Amino acid sequence: MEPKSQVTRWQRDFERFLPLKSQFVLSGNVRDLQVVEVQPGVVTAQPLNQCVAAALNRAGCANTILFQPLAGFSVVSAPGEAGGAAAGLLQELGLAAEGGQGRAGAELLASALDRIVRRQGEPIALIVDFAARLLTRPTDPTAAEHHLFTQALVLSQQAAPRPAGTDRRPFFNTVIWIVEKEGDLPDWFIVGNPRLRHIPVPRPDNRARRALAPALLKPLSGAAQAAPDSLKKAQDEFVDGTEGMLLVDVNAISVLARVEGVPFDKIADAVRRYKVGVTEDPWLQIGREKIKNAEAFIRQRVKGQPDAVVHMLDIVKRAVMGVGGGRRGGRPRGVAFLAGPTGVGKTELAKTVTSLLFGDESAYIRFDMSEFSAEHADQRLLGAPPGYIGYDAGGELTNAIREKPFSVVLFDEIEKAHPRVLDKFLQILDDGVLTSGRGDRVYFSEALIVFTSNLGIYKMTESGERELNVSQQEPYEAVKQKVESEIERHFKFVLNRPEILNRMGENIIVFDFIREDIAGEIFQQMVVNTLADLKSQELEVSLASEAMTSLRALCLADLSNGGRGIRNQVEAHLLNPLARALFDADAAPGRSYLVSGLQAGQLSLESAAR
């Protein structure tokens, strides 16, 4: 490992300009840990204050004073220096107080700033941490705040470098202001100030995480005896799994793994636990036998869709086994795009899979995408950006996933969403992560994502009219081919989002029309369920064969709306007139009735012996 290889760009920039600038502003990722090479080949992570003090010490600075709004003044001593020397420096500058710290506030800092900057002798530096908290409003400072930064501005111009050390390099008594954003300090202090250098501190990249990985995995169980290839594989998984995370989080994952006894080769489990905040993994608790017997369970509720059921179960099995890119890149456990006519069981399949996986069909998170057709609807999902109404509330999607990371997320009628909303799905499908309006990273790595759509059933003619693309008279293979072709055309040429379709891969599942034989089964089940509901209320109702035949003919006359259309017809020709007749007959528990005749919207009800 080369001596300079782990010194980050901002640190090199800071050290390079120390002889040239009297003051610095560090902003950005200042609350995170920073990569520091404490010895050649020895890398660790330190808070920003320690990292800056170490850089100042390497440059020849004798002592670094730290000011914090609540704690006041303290000295970050150079390595090996006695604590008495640090206390003596505070005494010399008039900053000593009981306990080695002084009172905090803008006035105290202003009174000390001149003494620190103009002090003679060995060079020293001042770090002003949480500098933004010294101001009520950067654009409208109070008199004391204005005086502090006016004095800082004047001192930045008047400070003169002086030679120090054996090589007689120029030195300032440097002042470093640490803020979250450059705009946290008055513009007139920063903008156009040639004696001040603003240095952004970026979020850690892949290189920083890889530099820390060996040290963080070394204390884990089994790492000391592991072969180099196994260690490298674990380090790669660790680096890939923590993509986009801060070093303070990366370090916390290592601590979590040590506390919970996670071996080094299972570090991906510790990453997952930290991301979603849940120790138990519901995916691992799903019984294999339950999944093996799932096809019969699903077909009881989703009828006439054998191909769709098999394809969906393949996705579920892959999700349960954790097979695929999700373990490394954080992508969702599974993705399914359910397409087909209305009322054929797309939403019902999502509910059934949720019940199969988590024991409760209401555990799924559903979003009706017709509600997200406006241009700025993405803010409802992710939350409003800072400064806008609703910023503190967060987004509907990000909040829901944070609360229930292990879930089936259903996006109904996806084609009705605004293209800006669709763009957000690219991040979910690729990286399994979204950043909310508040800046929080929300992970979808444990979710099963399901989209539903009616795309492909209709198509637009050259004159702009809408016409059927497929019909019930066509075989399923023809329906499937036409629907997939129309979906491809829509994403590529209408939405101009071919990349979304590409992320779906081979997970587009086309549902068939409800055919006559299946429609009969659905009708029979709905009638049986209706009569069973009445029986639970101690009302025995039966249908004469002629009434059942008439009802069947009425309900199955038009299958264009699928199972939902059959349900509507059962309600119109059985439920509504039956409820009316029972009400008029003053039906009471314990009595029996016979539907002797039935016509459209009407029926004849007779009392029957029980």
From TrEMBL:
Stored Pfam families: AAA_2
Domain AAA+ ATPase: 332-501
Record domain Clp ATPase C-terminal: where: 514-605
Keywords: ATP-binding, Chaperone, Hydrolase, Nucleotide-binding, Protease
Keyword set includes Transmembrane: no
Top-level taxon: Bacteria
UniProt keyword annotation of Oxidoreductase present: no
GO molecular function, one term: ATP binding
Any single Gene Ontology cellular-component annotation: cytoplasm
GO biological process: cellular response to heat; proteolysis
The protein's name: ATP-dependent Clp protease ATP-binding subunit
The organism of origin for this protein: Thauera aminoaromatica
